[in-house]
Structures are given as C-alpha cells and as structure tokens.
Amino acid sequence: MQTGLAHKYLFGPVASRRLGRSLGVDLLPFKTCTLDCVYCECGRTTTLTTERAAFVPVNDVLAELAEWLKSGGTADFITLAGSGEPTLHTGLAEVLRGIRALTNIPTCLLTNGTLFHLPEVRAAAALADVVVPSLDAPDPLTFARINRPAPGVDFDAYLQGLRTFAAEYRGALWLEIFIVPGINDSPECIRALAAQAAELHPAKIQLNTAVRPPAESFVRPATPAQLAAIAPQFTPPAEVIASFRATLHEQTSVALDEVLQLVRRRPCTVHDVAHGLSISFSAARAALTELSSRGAVIREVHAGLEFYRAPGA
Ligand code: SF4
C-alpha cells in the first residue's frame, strides 16, 4: 500500500536487486559522503567530509517512519542508504534502535565502511540486521582512482576498520565489490581483492557494476560475461547481483510526488519505478512522462537502457 504522501527522509520502497522491496531512509543532505566514487549513481559528492554530525533530526525521521507504518506501509527491508554515507550521522545508533522499537522489518545498512576505524561507528552499525560494506580497491592507488576519498581517509585504516568490524559483528555481513572496467578488473587486482575479501569472512560477496548512470561518464559497466568470470575467484564465490524480479500489483494511478522522491535519490528505469512503488508499468511510464513534460525529471540513455533522473543529480 502506498501512502501517497511526499516524504522527507523515506523513499520508496525501491526495487533493490538484493533486498527485494526496500524502504530507504536517508539521513543526510544530498550527496554528503566520505568518498566521491567515480561510479556513484547519485552523481559527484558535493560535501566530501569525514566530519560526523546530526545532519537531520532523529525524532523527525522516526516520526515519519511511524506514520508510514501506521498508514499500512510494508517492505522486505528498511535500508539506511540514500544520497550519502549513513555512518556520518552521529545518531545512527538511535535511528536503528528506534526502528527496532517500531517494527520487526529487518534493517540493512549500506556503508562504504570508511568510518569503521571508529569504535562508536562500529557499535552503531552492529545494530543493523544486515551490513553491506564496500571494498572496491586492494591498494591505496586504486582506492584513490575509484573511490576518491576525502582528505583524512587512510586506506590502511579503512581496511583495518573493516577487518575489526567483520570480527566483531554478529549479524549478516555482505560485502559489495563494484567492478569498474579499466580500473579494478585486472587479474592481479581481482586476486588481491579476493584475498582481502576472504579475510573478512563475509556471508555473501556481491559484484556490482554501473547499471545506472554513473558520476563520471567514462565509467562503463562490466559485461555479464566479465562478472561471471570474476565471481568464482572469491571465497565464498561472489554473486552477480541479478535484475530484480517481482510480482506487480496493479495500481492505476500513483502520486507524482512518490515517483519524484524515488528518482531524486537515484536514476530509475520505468521498471524500477513500477517495481519499487508496486504499480503497473503503464502507470509508471505515465507518471515519468508527465514529470518529464514538466521538466521535473530528465530522460537519458545509459548502457542501452532508458533512465530518468532529477535535473542536477
Ligand atoms: S557510491 Fe556510496 S560511497 Fe561512493 S560516493 Fe556514492 S554514496 Fe559515497
């Protein structure tokens, strides 16, 4: 069921390739991150920082979630993600405890892991049921090329923070590795990444690639054949994150605001909007066409697929 109301901190539920229908919770102003990854689907980082702060009021976030649940909202996961790095928020632990008090829907934290050297960040992250940190580079040079860290982010400290968190954490650790052809897909690079990933003993390793328009236009997606060749080199063997499939619940109309909230967070195809909001393909296309005619979204083609994104994103 959709509430039809525009939200400030919640988005979706979106169609996630690994989490099913995932309600996103965004704790940061647009594009506030410790990294500026060349492949980021939110565009370039505008606030590149390692300074943690209470970017948005925790009570307001939880009140919005409570309202959404009260109106019949359902999802497979509640995911802390969005347009920046969630561990930058100093109220992360409070948010995760607050979600647990409101609902049994499992929580997931998508993080780049660069703040895991801080004990308070590891303690907060450990409250999530699933934590999905990123590891795209096996050495400082590749890290600089692909992840473009904020001043003060040290590669060795980042790696050690990931190892410490992995050793302490009792939930499900899923490691995400983003393959950018020409930067981190050489046989040596994959071997080194596989060795580092194995040390973390993740429950899952997931390979991702630029299936959505990336921050930098030179980034191209790896082909399915490339990913299939890389996947078995990891322990456990990596999963190539497959296209999301779900049953569509027919709905003839959709609030344009809901669609706009989704597209503002990340570029979406018509299918993404249809699956994410549980509406028909034709309703999703109609909403995107209407928003496009109003100039609220821009249509663009990436890797042969048609995406819609917010202007300036
Ligand atoms: S991909 Fe994640 S970690 Fe990288 S810049 Fe975007 S939000 Fe930050």
CATH architecture type of the largest domain: Alpha-Beta Barrel
Q: Indicate the CATH class of the largest domain.
A: Alpha Beta
Oligomer: single chain
Total strands: 12
Helix/strand-derived category reads alpha/beta
How would you portray this structure in words?
The structure is a single chain. This protein has 313 residues and is of the alpha/beta class. The chain has two domains: 236 residues, TIM Barrel (Alpha-Beta Barrel), CATH 3.20.20; 66 residues, Winged helix-like DNA-binding domain superfamily/Winged helix DNA-binding domain (Arc Repressor Mutant, subunit A, Orthogonal Bundle). The chain has an eight-stranded mixed β-sheet. Helix 1 runs parallel beside helix 2 and helix 9 packs across helix 10. The protein starts with 9 loop residues before the first strand and ends with a strand. The N terminus is likely disordered. The site of iron/sulfur cluster has 10 residues, from loops.
Name its key features.
eight-stranded mixed β-sheet; 2 domains; 313 residues; alpha/beta; binds iron/sulfur cluster; TIM Barrel
What is the topological layout?
Elements (H helix, E strand, L loop, with lengths): L9 E7 L3 E6 L6 E2 L13 E2 L9 H13 L6 E4 L11 H11 L4 E5 L7 H7 L4 E4 L6 H8 L7 H14 L3 E7 L8 H14 L3 E5 L15 H7 L8 E2 L15 H10 L4 H8 L3 H13 L4 E5 L2 E5 L4
Parallel strand pairs: 2-5, 3-4, 5-6, 6-7, 7-8, 8-9, 9-10
Antiparallel strand pairs: 1-2, 11-12
Helix pairs in contact: 1-2, 2-3, 9-10
Bound molecules: iron/sulfur cluster (SF4).
State the gist of this model.
The chain is an alpha/beta fold and 313 residues long. Helix content is 34%, strand content 17%. It is built from ten helices and twelve strands.
